[in-house]
Design a protein that fits this description.
Order of helices and strands: HHHEHEEEEHHH
Number of strands: 5
Strand content: 5-15%
Shape: elongated
Distance between the termini: 18 Å
Length: 221
């Protein structure tokens, strides 16, 4: 049990920032290269994304929304190897922290704002070469290339977009530690969000206490 609220808040912040700033989970977070594995079965075909231009149009529509749609953007990605699948797991943890932030803000007017760590982008297709394409996404903070791939008659954002776009990491976390932090977030946060939205907690202290109890059940990393 955590009796010191300030210490607990610091612990939560460290876990959250580690996930957010490592997203996508960059090779810089890794303790070594991960050998590519055969691709898993792709999700069902989505006929809306019949061309690179259609995919990027949808990407831009998500970014133009007044609310961050990270969960909707995640499903646009297709992992081409094991490392990329793990990167997408970290993106899903990001989305869980965004949902947690929104729930706290709605219920208690909490100052946590994980959405501010992300920025909107506008992308344009730059090059198409068979089943591969490249788009340039320009945001307020930086620009990046989106690598696109056609697979099973539809276009996806390739996981190479994440693998080729390293970002500095503020914590000395190994690859495995980062994945454990992601799994911890994905295990704890959805249930807490449901309980917050259901009005189970009277104040933020009760949320923090529930968070601490859930953390005690998880292996340390």
């Amino acid at each position: 049990m955590y009796s010191n609220r300030r210490a607990l808040e610091r612990m939560i912040a460290v876990l959250a920032i580690a996930i957010i700033t490592c997203a996508p989970l960059l090779p810089g977070c890794s303790s070594g290269e991960v050998e590519a594995e055969p691709v898993a079965e792709a999700p069902a075909v989505d006929p809306r994304f019949a061309s690179p231009e259609a995919l990027i149009k949808h990407f831009n529509e998500l970014n133009a929304s007044s609310a961050l749609r990270l969960d909707a953007e995640i499903v646009l990605y297709y992992a081409e190897n094991q490392l990329q699948r793990e990167m997408i797991r970290v993106m899903k943890a990001d989305s869980a922290w965004v949902d947690y932030s929104r729930a706290l803000n709605t219920r208690f007017g909490h100052e946590y704002d994980f959405e501010s760590r992300f920025f909107s982008e506008t992308a344009t297709v730059q090059e198409v070469n068979g089943q591969r394409a490249v788009a340039l996404a320009v945001g307020s903070e930086r620009s990046r290339e989106l690598h696109l791939i056609e697979y099973e008659n539809r276009w996806w954002i390739s996981g190479y977009t994440l693998e080729y776009d390293p970002m500095p990491i503020p914590f000395d976390l190994t690859h495995e530690e980062m994945l454990k932090a992601s799994d911890t977030s994905l295990t704890i946060l959805p249930g807490l969000v449901r309980r917050i939205n259901a009005g189970e907690f009277e104040d933020e202290d009760e949320v923090l206490e529930a968070f601490a109890k859930e953390m005690e059940k998880r292996p340390k990393f």
